[in-house]
Amino acid sequence: RADKYTNYGQLELIETQTISSTTLVEFQLTGNYNVYFLTFSDMKLIDTKELLLRFSDDGGTTFEASGYDYASQRGDSGGSFSEVRQTNDSHILGISSNGASTNETQNGYMYFYNMLDSSKYGFCTWQSKGFDSGGKSEFHFGSGVRDTAVTYNAIQFKDSGGTGVQQGDFSLYGIKEYS
Fold first, then answer.
1. pTM, whole model, 2 decimals?
2. Second label for 106, Cα 20 to 30 Å away, from 21, 116, 157, 172?
């Protein structure tokens, strides 16, 4: 309780958000962590939309709309596989689209690195499992960066239509380090 025992990599819960109606999902990156870990479960978007991620360097007042690079791999149970790559985009494509039918949800996790270090770029990696807009079981993994070195102290998720997330549970953790 008083940090007397070393537990390298210990997850410290910062915040959990349960979404039950369409809304933007935003988190403040509080604490002094080099690595943040975010989980999402039973996430649902509007059919054929994709989850987009943006960073903020002013505490969430505005979110940067340029300078993101990302690459990812997708595959589904129908045998379709694809690679997505983009440079200098307005967002990071975090999660592919999912269907609007009952139980067609996405589940997964993301890591965020160097977000509070103004001398380094902010990076993220992700992996998810769910259903695509055609109802096929799919996987998606990738990584992204905003290649401007500033302090990123908030993140935002919304769908590619700009409206937000329809439902889901999102939990943000800091990964404790010891020096």
1. 0.91
2. 116
What is the C-alpha separation between 173 and 155, in angstroms, rounded?
A: 13
97/139 Cα distance (integer angstroms) = 11
The distance between the two most distant Cα atoms of the chain, rounded to a whole number of Å, is 51
Give the integer Cα–Cα distance in Å for 93 and 104.
19
Q: Tell me the residue length of the chain.
A: 179
Q: State the SS3 of 26-81.
A: EEECCCCCCEEEEEEEEEECCCCCCEEEEEECCCCCCCCCCCEEEEEEEEECCCCE
φ/ψ of residue 142, rounded to 5: 180, -170
* All residues at 6 or more sequence positions from 91 whose CB lies less than 8 Å from its CB, including other chains: 52, 53, 54, 65, 68
Please report the beta strands in 60-161, taking only residues with DSSP state E, as ranges in sequence order. Answer: 68-76, 81-89, 92-95, 106-113, 122-131, 137-146, 154-159
The CA-based angle 170-174-176, given to 5 degrees, is 155
Per-residue pLDDT of the chain (179 residues; tens, 9 = 90+): 555 665 667 899 999 999 998 889 999 999 989 999 999 999 888 777 788 999 999 999 999 999 999 999 999 999 999 999 999 999 998 676 666 666 678 899 999 999 999 999 999 999 999 887 677 888 999 999 999 999 999 999 988 888 888 889 999 999 988 76
